[in-house]
Each structure stands twice: as structure tokens, then as C-alpha cells.
Amino acid sequence: MVKLDKIYTRSGDKGKTRLATGELVDKWDARVTAYGSVDEVNAALGVAVLNADGEMKAQLQRIQNDLFDLGADLATPERDKPLGFEPLRVVAEQTKRLENEIDAMNADLAPLDSFVLPGGTPLAAQLHVCRTICRRAERDVAKLAGTAGEKVSEHALSFINRLSDWFFVASRFANDKGRSDIKWKPGANR
């Protein structure tokens, strides 16, 4: 269990931060950037939760917890030496749950015949914000995975990739199952 008894450490005053392993790194380190972007997704999701209810709210809250799991996974690099503790890692079942929820929501949606603009209901608009931040987090996690000497679990990358898809489908679902989607009209304002 996490115990935080002191919030400030002053190490950040010099542009440094510690990973879960205790390793001191620059605040602009690719790993810190990746889990920082994941944290941004979670903060945006916290706003979306305010407009959700029922099963959608429960799903969003589960995802918030999963995003903390992902952040812990990313903050604990895999090294070739023992850590002294069992690191928390994202598992395949978390991605599979997202896929199952995508399939369930998508079953109630009409197929797309155009791209949709972010908007519609307040919840749908907020889920589109989550989606775009999630796409950036996905790029940051993929960049970390492509960095020499860094390892990212396959489940971490697949989870964040599937999550951005989840947000897209959920935004349509929150738009009265797609009936309130705002469709893109190519060249409409020329």
C-alpha cells in the first residue's frame, strides 16, 4: 500500500524526480513524460465522471483505477536487477475488459457513415477530450518503448491503445447511442 506522509521533497527544484525504483531521473525523461501523460488522461476522466451515471460511471471509475495501475507500471522500469518488491504491471485482462465493453457499446450504435466532430452531450464532449489526451499518452508510451535501453510491457501499450478506442466508442454511446453525434461535413464552409 502507498503511504505518503510528505508531499514535497525538493528534488524537483533541480529538475529531477524519482521513479518507483528510487532511481533519480530528469523530469523530462521519456518515462516521466509517459506516465505524466497517463496522469493527464486520468485527470480529464475525473471531469467526465461528473457527468456520468449508472454503468457508464462505474466503467469510468474502473478505468481511472486502471490508469493508476498503468502509471505504476510505467514508473517502475524493468531492469536486469532485482527490485526487492513485486512491481504492479498492467495485465492482458484489463485490455480484454475494455474490448468487451467496446463491443457491448458498439452493438447498440449505428455504423458510422462520416467522421464525427467532438461534441454533442457534455459527457460525450468530455470523453472526446479524454480520447485526444489518451492518444498523446499512447504516443508517449510508444516513444518510451522505442527508446534504447527501455522496456515497456506489451500489456501497457495495448491497454493505452485500446483505451483511446474505448473513449471514442463511449463518446458515441454518450451521444444518445450515436443519434446526437455531430457529423463532419467535408468542405461545408468553403
Automatic annotation (TrEMBL):
It comes from the Bacteria. One of its GO terms (molecular function) is corrinoid adenosyltransferase activity. Keywords: ATP-binding, Cobalamin biosynthesis, Nucleotide-binding, Transferase. Pathway: Cofactor biosynthesis; adenosylcobalamin biosynthesis; adenosylcobalamin from cob(II)yrinate a,c-diamide: step 2/7. Its EC number is 2.5.1.17. The keyword Oxidoreductase does not apply. This is Corrinoid adenosyltransferase. It catalyses: 2 cob(II)yrinate a,c diamide + reduced [electron-transfer flavoprotein] + 2 ATP = 2 adenosylcob(III)yrinate a,c-diamide + 2 triphosphate + oxidized [electron-transfer flavoprotein] + 3 H(+); 2 cob(II)alamin + reduced [electron-transfer flavoprotein] + 2 ATP = 2 adenosylcob(III)alamin + 2 triphosphate + oxidized [electron-transfer flavoprotein] + 3 H(+). The lineage of its organism: Bacteria, Pseudomonadati, Pseudomonadota, Alphaproteobacteria, Hyphomonadales. Residues 7-173 form the Cobalamin adenosyltransferase-like domain.
